Amino acid sequence: MDVISVIRAKRDGHALGPEQIDWVIDAYTRGLVADEQMSALAMAILLNGMDRGEIARWTAAMIASGERMDFSVLDRPTADKHSTGGVGDKITLPLAPLVAACGAAVPQLSGRGLGHTGGTLDKLESIPGWRAQLSNAQMLEVLGDVGAVICAAGDGLAPADKKLYALRDVTGTVEAIPLIASSIMSKKIAEGTGSLVLDVKVGSGAFMKSLDDARELASTMVGLGTDHGVRTVALLTEMSTPLGLTAGNALEVRESVEVLAGGGPEDVVELTLALAREMLDAAGLPDADPAKALADGSAMDHWRRMIAAQGGDPDAELPVAREQHVLTATATGRLTRLDAYDVGVAAWRLGAGRARKEDAVQAGAGVELHAKPGQDVVAGQPLLTLHTDTPEAFDYALASLEGAYDIAAPGSDEAAAHRPTP
Ligand code: URA
Questions:
Q1: Quick one: DSSP state of residue 225?
Q2: Which of 66, 56, 98, 60 is nearest to 79 (CA)?
Q3: Beta partners for residue 408, in sequence order
Q4: Which domains, from first to last, does the chain contain?
Q5: How far apart are CA 348 and CA 401, in angstroms?
Q6: In what side-by-side order are the strands of the sheet with 231-238?
Q7: Start and end of every Pyrimidine nucleoside phosphorylase C-terminal domain (predicted)?
Q8: Residue 374 C-alpha to ligand 1 middle, in angstroms?
Q9: Interior CA angle at 88 toward 86 and 89, to 5°?
Q10: ipTM > 0.90?
Q11: Which residues pair with 86 in a beta bridge?
Q12: What's the 5 CA to ligand 1 centre distance in angstroms?
């Protein structure tokens, strides 16, 4: 087998055979196929696509490139959730302890933010002392003791994806549905969860900007999970405006703790409960009541134990950025649009995200929203507060917010079409 013939086949629009796929993934993982050759193949896949058979084989080859975890020693069913990523998407933080409080075990392998979307591990690292890196044995121990663990995937899990994802990120080949589906599902299947709920985001702040693409991604991933014996369901959820009222690491942890304490923004609570119900159903616990576990404090109790088990202090003060800048509303009326992508870019430019994998993030940086689409605003009153330790970033962040929102005149048809949120 030689890599050039595999690249040529995909370049010319042919389906790759099982032997070609197995060989190229294995050879790339072992360093026998060069990055530039794999980049050419990834671009050919982005341009010419893959059929379901190719995607299934590609995923299986990525799983086979590393180890598989096994949670069969646990005395309860496992349930995991994956979001395809968005702005202000902190749902994993309250969701994992909530579902654990309802009787499932939640092995949540999570990632870091890149570009305009935030990452769960970056958010949790703003809690003093908290560690993302656990060995497989430590992960199993926390899962057994607490019922929920959120940590980084070990190096042994789908190493082919680790290499390929980093390469796609710098070669403009992230947005290929076959590559996204196989990347996400190879890690989730190798992780060994019994059931999986996929939160596929659609809108300006998501990878998938159109409903058709989001549907295609969701059905591809559900098919892959089901074929590997993982009970998999997908929800398509809105990502055209940020989720909740914060985008940024410590800011989002604070909002998640509010949700666990029985408060927090309504959209965050609603999505957390919807995903919890799906996870519990998929795990075979349809009678569990997540709303009760939020209200009676048991979800908060699991959060505190989960954070402490990974070295974090759940009572510690969260970092606050050194400088704030308030952006005020330019008109009085109804906020009809606040763009998720623009807010995500602003948070990133303020220091909440990284431009390169090796960059550090600022714990306190980000954007706080004072109104959501559908709410009325008054000219001169705060609309957004920007937070950073590096005030020279304000102008750069503000530039990304030009044109990020629309305010419709009071009484106009446009205002009437955007009802206030209840
Ligand atoms: N998340 C992943 O893990 N892989 C992708 O390809 C995209 C998002």
A1: H
A2: 98
A3: 334
A4: 3-49 (1.20.970.10), 79-309 (3.40.1030.10), 323-417 (3.90.1170.30)
A5: 12
A6: 79-83, 195-202, 231-238
A7: 334-408
A8: 32
A9: 60
A10: yes
A11: none
A12: 27
pLDDT at 7 over 50: yes
211 burial type by CB count under 10 A (0-12 exposed, 13-18 middle, 19+ buried): exposed
Strand partners, 405: 338
DSSP structural state of residue 332: S
336/307 Cα distance (integer angstroms):
38
Q: Return the ligand 1 atom nearest residue 179 CA.
A: 6
Residue with tokens 């009676």: 296
Stretch among 150-154, 195-199, 379-383, 399-403 having the lowest mean pLDDT:
150-154
**For residue 17, what is the DSSP state?**
P
Q: Which of 12, 41, 8, 46 has the alpha carbon at shortest distance from 25? A: 41
Q: Of 90, 162, 187, 201, which one is the catalytic site residue?
A: 187
In the predicted structure, residue 422 carries a pLDDT above the cut 70: no
Q: 117 near 205, Cβ under 8 Å? A: yes
Q: What is the dihedral of CA 230, 235, 241, 243, to 10 degrees?
A: -60
| CB 184 less than 6 A from any atom of ligand 1 | yes
Residue 220: closest CA among 10, 386, 30, 58: 58
Residue type, 233: V
Residues in Cβ contact with 212 at an 8 Å cutoff, skipping those fewer than 6 apart: none
Structural tokens at position 329:
């509303």
Q: Which residue is closest in CA terms to ligand 1's atom 1?
A: 184
From 168, 188, 304, 387, the catalytic residue: 168
Q: Read off the DSSP letter of residue 393.
A: G
Measured from the CB, is residue 200 less than 6 Å from ligand 1?
no
Q: What is the per-residue pLDDT for 357?
A: 67
Helix residue spans in 170-237 (DSSP H): 177-191, 211-227
- How many residues comprise the chain? 422
* pLDDT, tens digit, 9 for 90 and up, residues 268-278: 999 999 999 99
For residue 378, the 8-state DSSP code is -
Is the pLDDT reported for residue 35 higher than 50?
Answer: yes
Ligand 1 atom, smallest distance to 183 CA: 4
10 a catalytic residue? no
pTM given for the model: 0.94
Active site residue 187: yes
**Ligand 1 contact via 329 beta carbon (within 6 Å):** no
pLDDT at 207 > cutoff 90:
no
- 183 a catalytic residue: yes
